[in-house]
UniProtKB/TrEMBL annotation:
The keyword Ion transport does not apply. Keywords: DNA-binding, Iron, Metal-binding, Repressor, Transcription, Transcription regulation, Zinc. Its cofactor is Mn(2+); Fe(2+); Zn(2+). Fe cation binds at residues 97, 118, 135. GO terms for molecular function: DNA-binding transcription factor activity; transcription cis-regulatory region binding; zinc ion binding. It comes from [Clostridium] hylemonae DSM 15053. The lineage of its organism: Bacteria, Bacillati, Bacillota, Clostridia, Lachnospirales. Binds 1 Mn(2+) or Fe(2+) ion per subunit. Binds 1 zinc ion per subunit. The keyword tRNA processing does not apply. GO terms for biological process: negative regulation of DNA-templated transcription; regulation of secondary metabolite biosynthetic process. This is Transcriptional regulator, Fur family.
Amino acid sequence: MSISQEKFKELLKEKGLKVTNQRLLVLEVLADHRDKHMTAEDIYELVKEDYPDIGLATIYRTVQLLLEMQLVDRINLDDGCARYEIGELFLGEAKHHHHHLICKTCGKVLPFKDDLLEELESHIEEATGFHVLDHELKFYGQCKECLERQNSTEKHVEV
């Protein structure tokens, strides 16, 4: 789902940011790839298709600024890379924690939006007085495809 450039411009101005081609292109790339968890290098490769003169350092600076302004979120998937996605609040959606399912076999990362931890957060606050602002959860295992491939291989070995 993409958002119009006018909406991006309006949101940048609301945040007190100057509207630049670089910022617009980074936001567009992240909005157009919402199901991906993109590194700065991934963003760079896509932005340079439309803006070949852009440098990787500009992408890093732009992503950092957008992160500080809470327009993008940074995700650590324990693979040594900082990854980014467009912020849900930026898209006008209610803030919703989403979690990640990480396949230990192929490395695929799947977002998982069901949040069953709200009750736990309430319990923590009632029990300790600690108000949880945010949380991040990662599940490690095998994706459906890798599990099916493994089961198929095991059946052939047993025969």
